[in-house]
Each structure stands twice: as structure tokens, then as C-alpha cells.
Amino acid sequence: MAKREFSVEHEYSYPRSSPIRWIIAHVWRYWFLACVVLICFLGSWVTYSQARVVIGDVAAMLEVPFDGSVLLRLSLIILALLVADGFCLWFGSLAGETIAARFEADAREELYTSLLGKSQAYHDRQRVGDLMARATDDTSQLASMIVPGSTMIFESILGIVVPLAYIAFIKIELLLIPLGFVACYIIAVRRYVRRLNPVIAEQREQFGKLNAGLEETISGIEVVKASAREGFERLKYRRHARGFRDLFVQQGRIEARYIPLLLFGITFGLTFLHSMILFDQSRITIADIIAVMSLIGLLRFPTFISLFAFTLVQTGVASAGRILNVIKEETELDENLQGHQATIKGELRFDHVQFGYEAQPILHDVSFSVKPGQTVAIVGQTGSGKSALTQLVNRTYDVQAGSVLIDGIDVSEWNLNTLRSQISKIEQDVFLFSRTIGENIAFGAPNAPREQIIEAAKAAQAHDFISSFVHGYDTEIGERGVTLSGGQRQRIALARAFLSNPRILILDDSTSAIDSATEDQIQRAIREAQRGRTTLLITHRLSQIRWADVILVLDGGRIVAAGDHEHLLRTSNHYRRIFARYESSLPPIEQAVLA
Ligand SMILES: Nc1ncnc2c1ncn2[C@@H]1O[C@H](COP(=O)(O)OP(=O)(O)OP(=O)(O)O)[C@@H](O)[C@H]1O
């Protein structure tokens, strides 16, 4: 079983060694419906072909004096056969559509669950638009592959085999030309599929690129507009769109060379000639000729639709490959279901930790320890690895060497859910979901009653501005919280952290967007929040740094000094330099307060 950070109980498991096996397993999950499709389509072709034979008999009877009652009986038989054909088609199509819709939904769910279980490092490498294309367009291609794609292929096969069986029954010699046609048909289809395959696969990839480019531009539309780069982005998109179009043109060219349609005309003509010869030799009757030519005519439809059917199936297989590539990709972390589960007390220790995102090393030999309930401020120049260090605590990433221990137990030995549910992190760039404010605050504690949500908002100094909105806590916020200011977003994130009541709190520059007037109140709220829980603080706010129990000074990914404020002012040049720089960026009034 591949590693993953999230899974659901009683998950249906599918073989994933190849797209075809994966598709068959998905369809086989609904084997009963698949059997209904097979039986109904078979029934449809048998009744439809049988009706042609009876029509031939009736036509022959019209040549000679006929018995009206026999004619009526045969006419009713034809009607019954055609009605039965209609019912078979109806049930078969219904069952096929049901399989297709379920397959699409199951594949979406499987892909989505797998994406939730991938590590942060995996998501860092992905282009969101391409993933979206796989989750939306590629999954819908799976449904089209079943209906009408596969059902049409199945119909094509039956639509060739059943009429040929009837012809064999009438006069086996008359199979000679149609069988030659079938042999050429199989060869032509194989060539067609082989040629089309790479074009379809490239089409799907190009669609992913097109979508990724679109997503990136729309997400960064503010930057595009501010830099007046609309023209450049338009040309980039047009280049992708034209690449996509060209692949369709290429597909059209391959389809235009699909030879079975031409072969069908030749087969029809030659079979008629063959029938005439046999009739001339008195070896078949007029009724036989009518029935045979009518049956041969049935081959036209399967020959024609197989062109689209194979394209649809190939597109589906290419899409399944793209979906499967995501699902199968190895991820770095595991949810460790059997891991340690306990309430975190809050002791944190880094022991000779080494870390880098890819090959590039970021943290070198980092060691420190924090007692439960202490506040650690991490300071250092930009890019020195402060955020990277905090990301190792909740296992957003794993260390490459050394260990991070919480309450004396390596974080990799903790049950991942237990660990993360007790650690709250507030980022500088707060992410909010396009839901109500209340739902955003309660994101980590979805069952929290409204009173607790309000209490948390009050503690984060967010209640007043939330109450000023017409719909208060039920105000829907735009995607990523765009309708709120940076400071408001950060206060909602603080409220979210207060509500989930974590044992370890990580504040990564989380008050940077809060103005000085609000800051005092928030400082108090944060200090309140820090009480009784271990807090890691990345901040440029001297007022917060000064009161930390431990200050870690990072430089180039190494801890160059550690201790409290007074100690560091006395002993560390690095700290003095950072402190002086932070101090000089303060307004005069705050400098006076700090002095
Ligand atoms: N997801 C990532 N993949 C690869 N490299 C990254 C990633 N995130 C950060 N880095 C690199 O890691 C280094 C440390 O980044 P980090 O964000 O930890 O620094 P920081 O000290 O928190 O900086 P700042 O104060 O500017 O937030 C930087 O050189 C950065 O370019």
C-alpha cells in the first residue's frame, strides 16, 4: 500500500497496474449492470436482425397468392420483434448510462481522496490547473468512454457478428465477401487506433497545460493587470489553445483516412453480385436475396459509428492514464494510523536537524529544546529558514537527518492526525475558504457552537468588524477571502486557532498585517492564547520577541544564538544587529515605548 497522509475507511480498492485494468475493475464493480448491457444489446441485435429475416419471408410471399392470416401473423411477429428491440435498447442504454455516471463519480472520489492524502512536497510540485483538468475534464471523458464509447463498440461488434450469423444461416457461401470485409476491418481499426493513440494522449496533456496556464493567469490577475501584461498573457494562452486545436486537426486527418467506410460500399456491391450468381444457379430464393442484402445493410451503421467509438474509448484510456498517474504517484509522508496517540503536553526538541526542500539544503544541524508552555521567538534574515523550521513540527515536511521530538517522541512516530489536530499554524498569507465567516473560524472545530465561535472571534479582536457586516458571522467571503483586508483575514485565522485550542501554536508573521491600533489588543489576545501552550513565533514585532522565553537566532539555516532577550543583547552580535534593524523600522512613538 502506497504512503498517504489521509485515507477513508472501507475504501474500495482497484488494481492500478495499468489504465485498462483500472477501468475494467471500476466497471466490474457494477458487474450486474454490465451483464444487463451485454444481454440487452445482444437481444436488441438478435430481434432487429430476425425482423429483417421475417421481412424477407413476407416479401417472398407477396410474389405468389398469399394467405392473409399468415401475412397478419408475420406482420405481428415483425412488430413484436421491433418492440422487443426497442425495450432491449432502452434497458441496455439505461444500464450503460448508470455504469458511466457511477464510474465517473467513483474515479473523481478516488482522485480527490488521493489528492488529500498527498504530501505538501507533492503539491508544491503540481500545477493546480492541470490537476483541475484531471479532476474535471479527464474524469468526464471516462463516462463518455463507457457511454457512448464502449457501448457503441459493443454494438459495432454485435452489429457485425449477428447479421453475419444470420447470413450464414441463410447461405453460408454468402459469408465469403463479408468475412473478407471483417478481416480488412480489423486490420484497419488496429492501424487507426495505433495512429490515433499518441495524438489523443498529447491532446489530453495539452488540455492540462492550457488549463494550468488559464488558472495561473486568473489567480494572478491582479499582478497581470498591475504590470499591464494582458497582451503577453493573451498570446501565451493563444499559443496553448492553438496547440490544442492543431492536435484535433491531426486527429481529423487520421479519421478522414478511416478506410472501413469505403470497404463497406465495396462489400455491399460484391455481395449483391454474389447473390445474383447464386440466384442464377437457383441456389437461393428472392426472399434470401432480400434478407441477405437487408442484413448486409446493417453493417453500415457499426462501421460508421466505430470511428467515433474508438476515438472516445482511446480518449478515455488516455484520461484514465492521467488520473492514474496522479493516484499512483508516491508521496513522502504516511498517516501512520498505528502511531502514537496522546494529548500533547508541549515539550519540543530539535535534535541535529537537517532539512532541505529538494536537493537544496536549508537547515543545518539545528538543535534546541522548549519546555511545555514556553514561547519561542525565531528571528533571522529573510530566507534564513524560519518558516522551514516550523514546518517540521507538524510534519508538513519531514527532516532529512536528525529528529524533531514532541514530548520525547519523534514526530514521525505520532499518528499524523493526532499530531496535526493539536498543532495550529497561522501563516502570514492566510488562506480562507469561500464559505461563511463562521464556517471559516470553525474550520478546525466544525461542531463548535456559535457562542464558542463568537468567543474566539472576540479573543482575536475580530468580533467588532464581523458584527459590522449585515450578515455577521453568516457573511459569505469571496474565494481566498478576497473581500476581507489582510488584517481582517489574519484576525479570522487567529480566531480559528483560538477555537481549535491547540497544544502547540505556530504564528508565522501572523500579525504583520495588523495596524498598530489593533495590535495592542491583539498582542494581549495572543499572549492570552500563548498561556499554557507551547508557541513558536516568527515575528518582526519587537514587543513579541522581547517577551519570548527563548529566542532562536537563525542565520543561513543555522542557529547562531539562543537565549532570552537580555542574554542575547549581551552576547550575540547577530541578535543586536537584527534587533537594531527591527527597531529602526518602528515609528518613533513605539521606539520610545520600547526604550
Ligand atoms: N516550498 C519550497 N520549495 C523549495 N524551496 C523553498 C520552499 N519554500 C521556501 N523555500 C526556500 O527555502 C529557504 C528558506 O525559506 P523560509 O521560508 O523558511 O525562510 P524564512 O526565514 O521564513 O523567510 P521569510 O522571513 O522571508 O519568510 C528560502 O531560500 C526559500 O527560497
TrEMBL record:
The record's subcellular locations are: Cell membrane
Its GO CC terms? plasma membrane
Please provide the record's keywords in A-Z order: ATP-binding, Cell membrane, Membrane, Nucleotide-binding, Transmembrane, Transmembrane helix, Transport
TM helices/strands, residue ranges: 30-51, 71-92, 142-169, 175-193, 258-277, 289-313
ABC transporter domain location is 348-581
Q: Which InterPro entries match?
A: AAA+_ATPase, ABC1_TM_dom, ABC1_TM_sf, ABC_transporter-like_ATP-bd, ABC_transporter-like_CS, P-loop_NTPase, Type_1_exporter
**Residue ranges constituting the ABC transmembrane type-1 domain according to the UniProt record:** 53-315
Please provide, alphabetically and separated by semicolons, the GO molecular function terms listed in this UniProt record.
ABC-type oligopeptide transporter activity; ATP binding; ATP hydrolysis activity
**What is its membrane topology?**
Multi-pass membrane protein
- Identify the Pfam families for this entry: ABC_membrane, ABC_tran
Protein name, please?
ABC transporter
Q: Which organism is it from?
A: Herpetosiphon geysericola
Lineage here is: Bacteria, Bacillati, Chloroflexota, Chloroflexia, Herpetosiphonales
